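Researcher: Quick sanity check before group meeting.
Model: Go ahead. Protein one:
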Amino acid sequence: MSNAAIIQHYFPEITSKQKQQFEQLKPLYEEWNAQINVISRKDIDALYIKHVLHSMAIAKVLCFKPGTKVLDVGTGGGFPGIPLAILFPEVEFHLVDSIGKKIKVVNAVAESLGLTNVTGTHARAEKVKGDYHFVVSRAVTRIKPFWAWIRNKFSTDQFNELKNGILYLKGGDLNEEMNELKRPWQEFLIQDFFEEDFFETKKVIYLSARL
């Protein structure tokens, strides 16, 4: 399955409204990608596996509770933030990227989908103000500089099943990179959630914001 049906396959609890929103993603991104290249042209046909479902692996690690505030750093065209915002309509998502034209796409897609829980901001992560329960991202840089950007942005208010922290989509052998931080971390294999070959080396990394 390379279309929106794959989302319902792995997330059978989604509502008819959410199903419709997921189905809208491909035509929306095809339209915007023709104007502003936010997704590799060779990947647009595999949008639901390589971008949407990949983003939603985070939801297999943690089901965000209503009222959670999530910062998506280096969101690009809106991943992982947009798919997660569809899945969790009662969670507040702040998507940031240092490239303004990508945020233009993010805000346009969110508006077209009627996502009132998404804010897109053109900014560098370290300049963002606010307190968040979780920071999510798709491998924008090595974890040590990433941690330096966002370590002071966490709320002390804890109410999810995991302590506030980072949920980071990464691939490959991460031991050397993760150990640079000298902080405890957990690794979740995405192939345990999704059977597609694309996810064979992909992982969700979790770090608590506080020891």
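Researcher: Fine. The other one?
Model: Protein two, sequence then structure:
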Amino acid sequence: MSNHSEPTSFAFTAENLEKAKKVIARYPAGRQQSAVMPLLDLAQRQDGWVSRATIEAVGTMLEMAPMRVEEVATFYTMYNLKPVGKHHVQVCTNICCLLRGSDGVGAVAQEALGVGWGETTADGMFTLSEVECLGACVNAPMMQINDDYYEDLTADSTRKILDALKRGETPKPGSQTGRQFSAPEGGPTTLIKTGEKA
């Protein structure tokens, strides 16, 4: 059972309405429905999630049947169809991350936060989600927290990140082992210096 009340209406703030109009203007006349994904994202950034009222408002704005907007919102996991905590912790459990230990990352996250998959902490600070590929396979295992990626995780680094967030700190995103972008573990092996062979 849901512990939130569904809003009966949605409206973009004046600032976000201007942003929405700019997004719609990027598309040729008659193709404004192509803006459905960025408008859903904008709405979610405003309210934290996409409600039924949001779906209907975006549909009206784009002259699109609400069902068509809902099809997009329910297909992509990036849209939250119920409220989430201040920190939305999304742990990738797809094959690359699983092979490199995401089961341990997920277990530590559940233990550290005291919630299971799809649940939100009582204080509303954290929601824990199990998600499919987030596209950082080479730096697996990884988790996304809001817009930040945390990669090359271990059980220990996962706990440190979550504990830092609990203290109100902002942990450094990216590789937790110091890896440079997606270079091999141990560092780059080619193009180290001009004229030098690896």
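Researcher: One line on it for the slide.
Model: The first strand starts at residue 87 and ends at 92.
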